[in-house]
Amino acid sequence: MGRSVRFITWGALGVLAAVVGFFWAAPEMPWIPRAAMTAFAALLPLATWLFSVRGYEVRGGALAIRRPAGLKRFSLAGLKEARIDPQAMRMALRLFGNGGLFCFCGWFWNRRLGKFRAYAADPRRAVVLVWQDRKLVVTPHDPEGFVQVLGAAQAAKRGEHGA
Questions:
Q1: Number of neighbouring beta carbons within 10 Å of residue 9
Q2: What is the rounded (10 degree) CA torsion for 111, 121, 75, 106?
Q3: Are residues 94 and 148 in the same domain?
Q4: Both 133 and 92 in a single domain?
Q5: What is the residue-level pLDDT of the chain in tens, covering all 163 positions?
Q6: 67 falls within a domain
Q7: How far apart are CA 150 and CA 78, in angstroms?
Q8: Reading across the β-sheet that carries 114-120, which strands appear in turn?
Q9: Counting C-beta atoms within 10 Å of the first and last residue's C-beta, which end of the chain has fewer, N or C?
Q10: Are residue 25 and residue 90 in the same domain, yes or no?
Q11: Start-end of H helices in 26-129
């Protein structure tokens, strides 16, 4: 996880713990709101962790995003461009998804890219993948190596169909 994701994660977990502590410290608070807040404080981090980014694989003409809840695959067919852009998520507005608890995951928008989907654990390592009709931001540990692997996969695919 990058610095921003660690900061947001620890901050959010701290706020959730403080809110639960407040609910349990208030003696006049009925048990149902206490139990509900405790359940929410436990389930929110668990749910976001299950869909957090744990790595990326390129194989079989697809990009697979490893998450504790399973793989998310994106076909590389029609991929027009893969470029390293550490500023890709700068000033991004979250349209739908997770805004930093264990990762940035979901739909975002900014002036730089327009609407895009992100599976990002460290925005400073952003790689932008561009298709005709969509954009995806991922953050591999080694952006340069990742772009090279994508290029090799695309070249191999062209070699299969071009011969």
A1: 19
A2: -60
A3: yes
A4: yes
A5: 888 889 998 999 999 899 888 888 887 888 888 888 889 988 999 999 999 999 999 988 899 999 999 999 999 999 999 999 999 999 999 999 998 899 999 999 999 999 999 999 999 999 999 999 999 999 999 999 999 999 887 776 666 555 4
A6: no
A7: 12
A8: 81-84, 127-130, 135-138, 114-120, 104-110, 93-99
A9: C
A10: no
A11: 31-50
Residues 99 and 44 in one domain: no
Q: Where are the beta strands (DSSP E) in 12-162?
A: 55-59, 62-66, 72-75, 81-84, 93-99, 104-110, 114-120, 127-130, 135-138
| Residues forming a β-bridge with 141 | none
For 67, phi then psi, to 5°, come to: -140, 155
Q: Are 41 and 16 in contact (CB under 8 A)?
A: yes
Within a domain: 95: yes
Give the integer Cα–Cα distance in Å for 38 and 96: 24
116 neighbors 108 (Cβ within 8 angstroms): yes
Range of the domain at 113: 78-162
